[in-house]
Design goal:
InterPro entries: RibonucZ/Hydroxyglut_hydro. The protein is of the alpha/beta class. The chain contains 7 helices and 17 strands. The strands form 3 sheets. Strands 1-2-5-6-7-8-9-10 form an 8-stranded mixed β-sheet, with helices on one face. Strands 11-12-13-14-16-17-15 form a 7-stranded mixed β-sheet, covered by helices on one side.
Length: 282
């Protein structure tokens, strides 16, 4: 079931997965349930889907899209990464809805998993969002921002904290920063628990938990000099002052006090004194 984050502007879709030892991108010992997210931005009759969620949630996501945009309705799609937790539902979405534009980055072909001719129609609707030219795809249209509709823009930037080509999005209209595979540490205690951490929720997140989730994905951080990452994150959050952090996995973080607290956890995990944050249990 989708959750409205900002009336008539932004919704989060997707399901959750149990943290039972079979998920590779969380720290050992992690328990509870982790939301898997994609986001629908709406402006009038225009819509932009950010990521497409896990394939296991395909039916749920497609039904929610139908409820939000109408069966067979049109939408654009922006992938923050070319990894399966972001792109795996592209083909079923393309089979049920009209994908008007597709925004991707890097050199990985998002159509590799397609088995039918719909990929040919979509190729001409693809826009490359890399700011600099890559070795492939130089004939593609390029963008550093996505026009959802006249007056509604999502600004796109490659974060300093990343592994593969990754893109963050900033929606100034709702004050939302889409952080892809960073800030993924928010978990639910039960599958039907709240997928949003805000001032109404008893937030039990700890610095150790944040560090554990961060190091599970970026295993090199504990051995690295991370001051450039700290400076980049601090400058980015100071300049944007986001009200909401919207990751592709994990709970949505909403409210400037919540955002600032979780940013402080992240900065602590990147600090020179972070050794004591290595978690025993998260």
């Amino acid at each position: 079931m989708f959750t409205i984050l900002h009336s008539d502007k932004l919704a989060v879709l997707g399901g959750s997965i149990p943290l039972d030892g079979r998920v590779s991108w969380v720290p050992a010992g992690a328990v509870g349930y982790q939301p898997s997210n994609c986001y629908l931005l709406t402006e009038g009759d225009s819509r932009l889907l950010i990521d497409s969620g896990l394939a296991i949630h395909s039916g749920q996501i497609l039904d929610d899209l139908a409820a939000l945009v109408g069966e067979g309705g049109g939408l654009s799609v922006f992938f923050t990464r070319s990894e399966m937790d972001c792109v795996s539902n592209l083909e079923p979405i393309a089979g049920r809805f009209d994908i008007e534009r597709l925004f991707t980055g890097g050199v990985i072909n998002p159509f590799d998993a397609f088995d039918d001719l719909s990929r040919m129609a979509l190729r001409g609707r693809r826009h490359q969002i890399d700011a600099k030219r890559t070795g492939e795809g130089d004939s593609l249209a390029r963008a550093t921002q996505i026009d959802v509709a006249p007056g509604r823009v999502v600004e796109v930037e490659a974060p300093l904290l990343r592994l593969l080509p990754t893109f963050w999005g900033w929606d100034g209209d709702t004050g939302t920063l889409f952080t892809s595979d960073t800030f993924t540490h928010g978990v639910m205690q039960r599958p039907d628990g709240p997928r949003i951490i805000d001032s109404t929720v008893d937030d039990t997140t700890t610095a150790e938990q944040v560090a554990g989730h961060l190091y599970a994905k970026y295993e090199w951080i504990p051995r690295s000099t991370c001051e450039p990452l700290r400076e980049w994150l601090t400058d980015k959050f100071d300049s944007l002052d986001p009200e909401t952090i919207a990751p592709s996995r994990g709970c949505v973080l909403r409210g400037r006090d919540v955002v600032r607290r979780h940013l402080d956890f992240m900065l602590a995990a990147l600090s020179p004194q972070r050794a004591h944050l290595t978690p025993q249990t998260v």
